[in-house]
Fold this protein.
Amino acid sequence: MRDLVAASDEAHAALWATVLSVDLVGPVRSMGIVAPDDALLHVLQDPRAVRTIAAHDHVWLRPVDIAACFTARSYRTDDRLVLGIDGSNWQVTADDCRRTDDAADLSLAPHAVGPLLLGGVSASALTRGRCIHATSADAIGRADAMFGWDPTPHCRSEF
């Protein structure tokens, strides 16, 4: 299967149910269309029947204009965090992002900026992976709440 797109969560579950209810000769294979947080496993009576042989999110992002990128997105909480990125500190709020001389709450490795910006990987996971250094555990929890996003960013089309 190359594409499965629905206008709602209910339609998405119904499409999977339809595909899986057809008496097929072989297994159903989806090529990159299943997001990490897809409801497919919960649609199935036996989620152990799913075999993942590769995982590709088809999303790559290396922000260059930090202020524009972090200002353009929405946030789950109204908070203020200072991010250290490439030697500069950036104050991020629900309203905007601007350079600051304040100390960083979180220092990000260059490859952690994109995932944090998109909200597809939690600040906690990036910290455990040594991509973010936090000045306090409180800063990590606040970043998880502020930057988290649902659904997980996922590009269903290859390009």
